[in-house]
Amino acid sequence: METKKFHVNLAVLATGMMAFAGVLIETAMNVTFPTLIEQFGITTSQVQWVTTIYLLMISIVVPLSSYLMKNYSKRQLFIASSLFFVAGVLVDAFAFSFTVLLVGRLLQGVATGIALPLMFNIILTKVPIKKRGMMIGIGNLTTSIAPAMGPTYGGILTTTYDWTYIYKLLIPVLIVSTVIGLYAIPKEEQQKTDTINMKAALYLSVMFTGLLFFFSHLESPIGWISLAIGLVGGFLFYGSNKQKELLNLSVFSNKMFTVYLISFLVYQILLLGVSFVLPNFIQIVSDVPASRAGVMMFPGALTGALFAPISGKILDKLGFKKPIGIGILFAVAGWLSLIFVIQTGNMTLITMSHVIFMIGVGLSYSNVMTVGLSAIDKSLQDDGNAVFSTLQQFMGAVSTSFVAIIVGLFQKSSSDYQQGTSTGSKVALICLFVLLVISGLSVFKTFTKKEIQQ
């Protein structure tokens, strides 16, 4: 048996590079949508599948992570993730049709769905407790900085070269991460200690896919047929999951957990929604190049990333009410400002409103997850984390589909494509604002309760 030392820092770096690349592409592609619509002759509701299919695959793979960790070695999972990712990036780097582009995105979603849990599993199982907090912070920073860089990265490359360079420039990065991972992660014997409920996994996939198709085709019979299929899948998943749990649904019996989970998911919906609306609006309505649209998103995304670790320290010192409460107020103010200024097309006002919203996100987004998981018994926190991670990706996909269909409907119904885009963008922001207000009020109601586990 190989006794090679497990190089933890390098292993985290290798898996972190893949996770970073996955999240980077997710936001980088949003600024390319107008270009893709023109190049492939597709609609707004179709182009959103570039993001949706990626998030759908992550939401399907993440619930399987517990089974994968128990039955396959870290090295095996790393190799699988690397192969999926390199294959997906190569496919998209030379995609000659929209269908081929989606195939590449699907492969990348599988890769990221493996890499993200693997990175944190390595930290939790290999890093000493006294250094674990710092390493988890580095891991979270990896996935929070990438969304800030994505729109700028994608916008500059799309304007300077073409959108395929978003993928071409990642090929050497992935090769380097693969080499580092193969060096750092040793061969380890892994006994298969668990079986997977394949029926539950299949039904969960059917449920997610059906619901996503519903949100993508609200205006057609296909959407309602998909909804029926999704609901049947959900019913069958619930029954099968009780026989052998793929996801522990008992966590939903805790009201505090559920309220903060919903708040977390609403933030995810808003983040993915605004990253779709703003770059597309500014390019189509204001005729701004993709590079400037990407730069417009950078200050807000960077602000959110920088506030996230600070908000955790505030929570540790002052409790959860102040950072979350103030964060909700900033988020509401910023989003309301976006609704009022978006149709002016003024990039400065839009950027400032986005920054205000992202201050709120930075103060409260990660903290609502912390409070939600702290509200349940420690023995259930792994299960709660799996629920958070799974639904986070799924609701991000739902948000992109929902916003795209609203904008698309107004584009079709208006004789002026730019005017339709403008009106549809504002209506989409208003719809999401209602969700923010409802979830914010629900969180404020919990401030008088004492259900948080210490």
Automatic annotation (TrEMBL):
<feature type="transmembrane region" description="Helical">
    <location>
        <begin position="196"/>
        <end position="215"/>
    </location>
</feature>
<keyword id="KW-0813">Transport</keyword>
<dbReference type="InterPro" id="IPR011701">
    <property type="entry name" value="MFS"/>
</dbReference>
<feature type="transmembrane region" description="Helical">
    <location>
        <begin position="7"/>
        <end position="29"/>
    </location>
</feature>
<keyword id="KW-0812">Transmembrane</keyword>
<feature type="transmembrane region" description="Helical">
    <location>
        <begin position="294"/>
        <end position="312"/>
    </location>
</feature>
<feature type="transmembrane region" description="Helical">
    <location>
        <begin position="165"/>
        <end position="184"/>
    </location>
</feature>
<feature type="transmembrane region" description="Helical">
    <location>
        <begin position="221"/>
        <end position="238"/>
    </location>
</feature>
<protein>
    <submittedName>
        <fullName>MFS transporter</fullName>
    </submittedName>
</protein>
<feature type="transmembrane region" description="Helical">
    <location>
        <begin position="427"/>
        <end position="444"/>
    </location>
</feature>
<keyword id="KW-0472">Membrane</keyword>
<dbReference type="GO" id="GO:0022857">
    <property type="term" value="F:transmembrane transporter activity"/>
</dbReference>
<feature type="transmembrane region" description="Helical">
    <location>
        <begin position="259"/>
        <end position="282"/>
    </location>
</feature>
<feature type="transmembrane region" description="Helical">
    <location>
        <begin position="106"/>
        <end position="124"/>
    </location>
</feature>
<dbReference type="GO" id="GO:0005886">
    <property type="term" value="C:plasma membrane"/>
</dbReference>
<feature type="domain" description="Major facilitator superfamily (MFS) profile">
    <location>
        <begin position="7"/>
        <end position="451"/>
    </location>
</feature>
<dbReference type="InterPro" id="IPR036259">
    <property type="entry name" value="MFS_trans_sf"/>
</dbReference>
<dbReference type="InterPro" id="IPR020846">
    <property type="entry name" value="MFS_dom"/>
</dbReference>
<feature type="transmembrane region" description="Helical">
    <location>
        <begin position="49"/>
        <end position="68"/>
    </location>
</feature>
<feature type="transmembrane region" description="Helical">
    <location>
        <begin position="355"/>
        <end position="376"/>
    </location>
</feature>
<feature type="transmembrane region" description="Helical">
    <location>
        <begin position="388"/>
        <end position="407"/>
    </location>
</feature>
<feature type="transmembrane region" description="Helical">
    <location>
        <begin position="77"/>
        <end position="100"/>
    </location>
</feature>
<keyword id="KW-1133">Transmembrane helix</keyword>
<feature type="transmembrane region" description="Helical">
    <location>
        <begin position="324"/>
        <end position="343"/>
    </location>
</feature>
<dbReference type="Pfam" id="PF07690">
    <property type="entry name" value="MFS_1"/>
</dbReference>
<feature type="transmembrane region" description="Helical">
    <location>
        <begin position="136"/>
        <end position="153"/>
    </location>
</feature>
